[in-house]
Amino acid sequence: MIHMSPDTKQHFACEYDRYGDSYTADTDVTQLKEVFSRINNKNDEKMPLDMIANLEERYLWKSSPLCMFRKNTIYLDLYAVVNDPSTKTHGTMLSIRALELRFHGAKIVSQLKEGVSHVIMGEDHTHVKERKALRRTFEKKFKILSELWVTDSVKEGKLQNENPYLI
């Protein structure tokens, strides 16, 4: 519509999404194809993870194992030198943990900086002292955990108590 009253605009906002798809009316393949043709992913901004987490919490999706790590920002100890992506170690189990974490809602970062909630370490703990020293410089401290916290949480379908996994 080109022109409409505020009441009509409000009515349409309650009945249709921004692509013209009805929230309540049944649809068929042809109508879905038409709606999908209106979607231009290049111009759409990604929804922030905290907004997704709030929606999940609001609609009780937080009990789903697919969003158990949603509120976590995680740095995996995949780098020989902190914050230098060129020193990434390939072919470790931490790379698989990264995929599991993403699948279950975590935000994975390659820079260890303020705002990281957890640092996950593999079997090799050679960088622990360096990571702990860096943690002392942060206002909000992160937890340094064994990768077993991830695997056990995924296996149980819910976040496990972090204390037994602290390094």
Automatic annotation (TrEMBL):
Any one Gene Ontology molecular-function term assigned to this protein's record: ATP binding
Superkingdom of the organism of origin: Eukaryota
InterPro entries hit by this protein: BRCT_dom, BRCT_dom_sf, DNA_ligase_IV_dom, LIG4
Subcellular location: Nucleus
GO cellular component: DNA ligase IV complex; DNA-dependent protein kinase-DNA ligase 4 complex
Record keywords, A-Z: ATP-binding, DNA damage, DNA recombination, DNA repair, Ligase, Magnesium, Metal-binding, Nucleotide-binding, Nucleus, Repeat
Family matches, as PROSITE patterns: BRCT
Pfam families: BRCT (PF00533), DNA_ligase_IV (PF11411)
Classification via Gene3D superfamilies: 6.10.250.520, BRCT domain
The protein's name: DNA ligase IV
Primary location recorded for the protein, binned into one broad class: nucleus
Family (UniProt): Belongs to the ATP-dependent DNA ligase family.
Cofactor: Mg(2+)
PANTHER family, A to Z: DNA LIGASE 4
Domain (BRCT) ranges: 101-167
Organism listed in the record: Gopherus agassizii
Biological process according to GO: double-strand break repair via nonhomologous end joining; immunoglobulin V(D)J recombination; nucleotide-excision repair, DNA gap filling
